[in-house]
């Protein structure tokens, strides 16, 4: 199989490595509109060759799109306009707009909409890692809209990468992604801004910040090039969960103001119940 990966950053680069590491592709072609990223991807062995998008698609059996979500719908249409036998998949973290845009395309069946639930705060080809997806879930949206052999190939790849598969509708996916992924990103950015605003001495932050702070603010190192499109494309779900998050912060603020130890204890005990889900 010849696979093309469009976007050779964290997700695309790690997927390219996984295809090569597991022997799932005989050749990986890379596509990236940043010449420096393309050169680095070749240097790191993420891709065997870098080609323009049109030539790469024509030469491939599988095309994986791993670019910022704001650009995926238009590119998906352009690629579907070219494909005949090829299977196309995306790896973006918002799905509703994409699925709406391609819904009536004559070759909609060649497309499989996916979202591997993995990521780090790093970006670019250098951030790609082997074994990135093992044990992480992947969401497939509108499975019934894809051709059976297209779904079979994509699901087989994810299974061989060790990823449990979850099927959801696009609206459901975007809602849950806002709750368990996107709000964490906003919160991390906000916490970093709060600390940077209140604590003006970098050395003090470095010296006193413990593991808890580091793990909470880690996501604030993530690139805006990736996250701004996600937050704006999923804005209504993000705003909904953000309203609830702000409400919970206000409740805890009032309890602290009132020295309400019992209220705090009850809230913390309720929060501790997350252990049932996340160990």
Brief description of this entry?
Helix content is 53%, strand content 12%. The chain is an alpha/beta fold and 279 residues long.
Task: Please characterize this protein's 3D structure.
The protein has an 8-stranded mixed β-sheet with strand order 3-2-1-4-5-6-7-8, with helices on both faces. It is 53% helix and 12% strand. Helix 4 packs parallel to helix 5 and helix 7 packs across helix 11. It is built from 12 helices and 8 strands. The protein has 279 residues and is of the alpha/beta class. The protein starts with a strand and ends in a 7-residue tail after the last helix. The model has no long low-confidence stretch (mean pLDDT 95). The longest helix has 29 residues.
Mean pLDDT over all positions: 95
Query: If strands are numbered along the chain, what order do they take across the biggest sheet?
Result: 3-2-1-4-5-6-7-8
Give the oligomeric state of the chains in this entry, treating copies of one chain as homo and distinct chains as hetero.
single chain
Secondary-structure element string: EHEHEHEHEHEEHEHHHHHH
- Sheet of most strands: 8 strands, mixed
By DSSP, the count of extended strands is 8
Query: Rg to the nearest angstrom?
Result: 21 Å
Residue share in helix: 40-55%
Poorly predicted regions are: none
Please state the structural category. Answer: alpha/beta
Which percent range describes the beta-strand content?
5-15%
What is the number of helices? 12
> What is the general shape?
globular
Distance between the termini: 38 Å
């Amino acid at each position: 199989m010849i696979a093309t990966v469009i976007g050779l950053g964290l997700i695309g680069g790690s997927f390219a490595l996984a295809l090569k590491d597991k022997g799932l592709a005989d050749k990986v072609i890379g596509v990236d509109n940043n010449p420096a990223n393309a050169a680095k991807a070749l240097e790191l062995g993420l891709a065997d060759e870098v080609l323009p998008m049109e030539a790469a698609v024509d030469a491939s059996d599988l095309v994986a799109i791993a670019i910022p979500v704001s650009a995926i719908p238009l590119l998906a249409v352009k690629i579907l306009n070219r494909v005949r036998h090829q299977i196309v998949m995306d790896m973006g973290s918002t799905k509703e707009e994409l699925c709406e845009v391609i819904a009536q395309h004559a070759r909609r069946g060649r497309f499989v909409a996916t979202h591997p639930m993995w990521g780090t705060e790093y970006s670019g080809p250098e951030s790609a890692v082997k074994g990135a997806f093992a044990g992480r879930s992947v969401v497939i949206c509108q499975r019934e809209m894809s051709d059976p052999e297209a779904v079979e190939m994509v699901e087989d790849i994810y299974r061989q990468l060790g990823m449990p598969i979850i099927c959801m509708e696009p609206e459901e996916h975007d809602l849950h992604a806002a709750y368990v992924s996107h709000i964490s990103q906003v919160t991390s950015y906000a916490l970093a801004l709060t600390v940077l605003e209140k604590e003006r001495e970098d050395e003090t932050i470095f010296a006193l910040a413990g593991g808890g702070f580091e793990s909470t603010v880690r996501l604030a190192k993530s690139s805006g090039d990736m996250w701004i499109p996600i937050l704006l494309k999923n804005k209504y779900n993000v705003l909904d969960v953000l309203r609830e998050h702000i409400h919970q912060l206000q409740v805890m603020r009032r309890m602290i103001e009132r020295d309400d130890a019992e209220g705090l204890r009850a809230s913390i005990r309720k929060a501790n119940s997350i252990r049932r889900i996340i160990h």
